[in-house]
Amino acid sequence: MPEVPLDFIQMIVAAFITVMILSYVIGDNVLFRIATYLFIGIASGFAGAIAWENIVKPTLVQPLISDGLAKLFSPEGALTFLIPWMLALFMLFKLSPRLSRFGGFPVALLVGVGAAVVVGGSITGTLVPQSLATAGTLSPANALPAAGEPLSVWLERLISALLMIAATISVLIYFRFSAKRDLTGGARRSRIAEVFAYLGQVFIAVTFGVMYAGALMATIVVLAQRFQFLHDVVTRIMGGA
Amino acid sequence: MAENRCPMCSTMNQETAEVCSNCGARLKPLVFETPPSDQQEPAAEGISPPATEASGDGDDWLANIRSDAIMGSGVDDHAAETDAADDAAPDWLGRLREADSSLEEGPPSEEIPDWMDDFLAAGEEVTDEEVPEWLSRVRERREAQTEGQPESDEGEDWITRLRDDTPDERRAGVEGLKPSADEDESIEQPAPRALDPSPPPDVPDPVPQDEILPEEATPSHEVGASAPALDRLDEDPQPAVGEPMPPEGEMEWFPVPDESELLDAKGLPHVPALLDEETGEKPLSDISDLNMDSIELPDWLGESKSETPSVAGEEDEKPDLAPATLPSWLEAMRPVDTFRSEIAIESDEVQPVESAGPLTGLRGVLMAEPVVAMPRTASTAAARLEVTERQYAQAELLQRLVEEEEREIPPVRAEKRRLPLMRWAIALILLLAVILPFGFKQLGVEGYALPSVVSRDLAPLIDLIGNIPTDRPALVVFDYTPGYSGELDTVAGALLEHAVMRSLPIVTVSTRPTGPPLAEGLLNKIGASYGAVNGENYLHLGYLSGGPTAVQLFAIAPRSVVLSGYHLPESLSEGSVWESPLLQGVHRLSDFNLVIVITAGTDTARTWVEQTQSWIGDTPLVMVLSAGAEPLVRPYFEASEPQVDGILTGLPAAVSYRQYSGLPLDTGAQWDAFGIGMLAIELILIAGGAYGIGLWLIRLRER
After folding, report:
1. Is the CB of residue B599 less than 8 Å away from at least one CB of chain A?
2. Which partner from A99, B328, B566, B632 sits 20 to 30 angstroms from B622, CA to CA?
3. Do B526 and B542 share a domain, yes or no?
4. Looking at the structure, do residues B86 and B12 belong to the same domain, yes or no?
5. Is B503 left (phi over 0), alpha (psi -120 to 50) or beta?
6. Beta carbons of B224 and B272 less than 8 angstroms apart
């Protein structure tokens, strides 16, 4: 009996699972569900294995095995080893309804630190730089034509800058939800705000359209790549045969 | 000019004012003006008091009554004056006098009615023989009764009998007093019967005088004050002035008062004055001593007074008396619960003495504390819930929601299962569009043309990768899931192949657990073509847990975050990944020559841009994105001071990169499949748009 290479078996299994997923074209069926469950289960198991191999073992277990309990009570180990251990144990208390309140401290630490990091990063990495960039699009250095620059390039750059400013302002006005209350009790924005909000709505629609087109392109690329894979498998099987 | 101060409200009034102009309180006390002793004697002798006293003070009817009682009926001059005073006297008293006069006078002989003539004639003519048998038996029985009683009691004990009689008997007795054939005495002496103390039909009953006068106007002592007037009926049975005195024998039934009683009548109880006019002192030491028991009332009056409640109670018990009925509108207005029909007024001794204000020292004043300080029940208006229209609308909405929850949902009819023909048609078109290009080669059909124009963003990126120094590694972040590997492996493969082709060391990391195997598979595939080996040309740091926080920590101190790698070579399996020669000199993010982030999500791309902003330094940041994520990441690239130095998105850009970077084009069939598939999608979109417009026009025409 000829020996079958492992990668060939892997390729056959992958091709079969790909067909199972593509069977969703005819509707929800058992093959599609089996493939979905397999994917979820394998992904979860693999994530657990990665977490153990990359996180738990090198940070919590390996130092204990190599250095023993003496590391726990050393000044350096108390900060880098004992506290992580205690936080991890507190997280395990979440499994018990009676002791779950002890798990609140590490969760609060994670949420608080995570929120602070995200907000700080958004301000310093997105809000301020993007605002300055938008404000600088119409600066003389950017708005005026450079020496020797073709007129078409300058016009394109100018129109792009105007569009960027108009899009930014109009979208911001569209997401401004405060308005005066009219006699009927409803909220109504001013006429200028209404016009700019409508313009911002147009820009948002164009953006979502572009994103949808990109998703379609990505989907077609994935579909083509899968059929390329199936074509390679069939070719290999046919060639092997 | 002297003024009078009101004892109640301290208001200054004119000296001649009778009542206070402010509170209406009487300023001059009502004091019975006892006639001087020199005037009383003539009064007793029949001299009338001055006419001015009788006629001038019409309200002093009590004085007139007393003077009548004192002077008797024999004074002719006083009769005229009393007639004048009668005009101002109360009506019931006037009627009472009139009744007395008429009854005492008796009917004139010429005015005796015919039926009385019959009785008189019958009394004269009837003989013993003609008396019926039953009448004779009655007479005998009466004679037998009268024989056992002393003669003297015969005249006055009719009142005693009235007391002893039950109401029925009394009623029968009254009926017995009617002129009948069996009572010769009453027939012969009608006048004394008229003086019967029982109230005549046209004389108001003394008891219900409360009904005549208001309740406030009849305090208890006034009843005593009026007693002499009533007493006069008993003590002064003499006929009125000008009337003939009845024979003495005919008045035996009536108790004639002796002289001592007449003298006592002079000392009739006076109307108590509030203050003595001269001394200003209380004339009566103790008004409370003036009670009903101290006043001599006629027996019949005391009897009727004591029996009035019981009689009234008996009348209430009579079933034949219809209860008083009120009109419906009046019945509706009558307070039921809140109205206190009886108010217990305490005596003056019990009531507190006012200690402040103008009424200091007085008893019986209305206290202000119950009105001001005492707790009261809340008014209805305060307890009423005020609901605005908005609250009412919200309540209506809430009620509607509750009713909506309680409503049973009708069973949903199972729709007919329709075959997904439209979905099958679209799927068939797409499958054919993607599958057919793989047979172009066998069929000899030329596929889609390669991109002929390089985008403006691609050339700088190619230059950047082509000029990156290779002394330090490039960090490649694999932040996408296996579902996007079909697209991103193709797109990022061109960039990574270019780096591997230039022998640029590559170090991979991922914030997703599925990232490291994707990195290993792609680099193994690329490295196999260029002889790149794991551990020597590329290295996997593995999984970076912690999200944005871990990214920031990795940017600050990567050695403290990543402790172990992924799929490390055997030489590094026992030690730390940072002992690899590829990572020598790398202590922070800026120590890498290039950072490439491969991701399909905008959040991940933004996280790496934001969290590495402060620590990335001059290291270029390149984004390899899925086509759907490009619009949200491009602002970081197209800014005047770009935070992203290069961007590579989609298969066309990857093909262009390969085409213009000198990399082999191994995407022939995939490129054709992508091209025809996109064409099919565009046709489907156009067909769908045309179908929608056609439906809209048809519906517009139908309307």
Report:
1. no
2. B566
3. yes
4. no
5. left
6. no
Q: How far is the C-alpha of B27 from the C-alpha of B3, rounded, in Å?
A: 11
> Which residue spans within chain A are E strands per DSSP?
180-181, 187-188
Question: For position B524, what pLDDT does the model report?
Answer: 92
- Taking only the tens place, the pLDDT of each residue in A95-121 is 888 888 888 999 999 999 999 999 999
B177 class by beta-carbon count within 10 Å (0-12 exposed, 13-18 middle, 19+ buried):
middle
Pick from A49, A214, A177, A135: nearest CA to B542: A49
Q: Which of residues 6-45 of B touch A (CB under 8 A)?
A: none
Beta carbons within 8 Å of B635's beta carbon, 6+ residues apart: A130, A133
Give A83 to chain B, closest Cα distance, Å.
Answer: 16
Q: How many domains does chain B have?
A: 3
Residues B136 and B222 in one domain: yes
Res B374: pLDDT: 59
Which pLDDT belongs to residue B701? 93
**What is d(CA B541, CA B528) in angstroms, rounded to the nearest whole number?**
20
Residue B544's CATH number = 3.40.50
Closest residue on chain B to A48 (Cα): B513
- SS3 of B298-349: CHHHHHHHHHHHHHHHHHHHCCCCCCCCCCHHHHHHCCCCCCCCCCCCCCCC
Beta carbons within 8 Å of B88's beta carbon, 6+ residues apart: B58, B59, B61
Q: Which residue of A has its CA nearest to B666?
A: A228
**Same-domain check for residues B39 and B108:** yes
- Nearest CB to B486: which of A185, A211, A225? A225
Domain residue limits at B39: 31-318
Residue B373 belongs to some domain of the structure: no
Say if residue B142 is in the same domain as residue B49.
yes
For helices B220-235 and B299-317, give the axis angle rounded to 10 degrees: 110
pLDDT for the residue B293: 52
Q: Do B640 and A133 touch (CB under 8 A)?
A: yes
Q: What is the ipTM of this complex?
A: 0.87
Which residues are paired to B12 by β-bridges?
Answer: B5
Residue A107: other Cβ atoms inside 10 A:
14
Q: What is the pLDDT of residues B129-180, one digit of tens each?
A: 556 677 777 777 777 766 655 444 444 455 555 555 545 554 544 444 444 4
Mark whether B22 and B35 lie in a shared domain. no
The overall pTM is greater than 0.90: no
**Residue B379 tokens, joined:** 């008014």
Phi-psi region of A144 (alpha: psi -120 to 50; beta: other; left: phi over 0): beta
CA torsion B355-B358-B359-B365 (nearest 10°) is -100
- Specify the pairing of strand B3-5 against strand B12-14: antiparallel
* Contacts (Cβ under 8 Å, ≥6 apart) of A166: A199, A203
- Calculate how close chain B gets to A188, using CA atoms only, in Å: 19
Between chains, do B628 and A211 touch, taking CB under 8 Å as contact?
A: yes
Distance CA B299, CA B466 (A): 143
Phi and psi torsions of A168, nearest 5°: -65, -45
User: B18 near B27, Cβ under 8 Å?
Assistant: yes
The β-bridge relationship of strands A187-188 and A180-181 is antiparallel
List of chain B residues with pLDDT < 50: 36-59, 72-89, 99-107, 109, 123-127, 150-156, 166, 170, 172-244, 246-250, 263, 265, 269, 283-290, 305-317, 339, 341
B268 DSSP assignment: P
B585 burial level (CB within 10 Å; 0-12, 13-18, 19+):
exposed
Q: In this structure, what are the phi and psi dihedrals at residue A120, rounded to the nearest 5 degrees? A: -60, -40
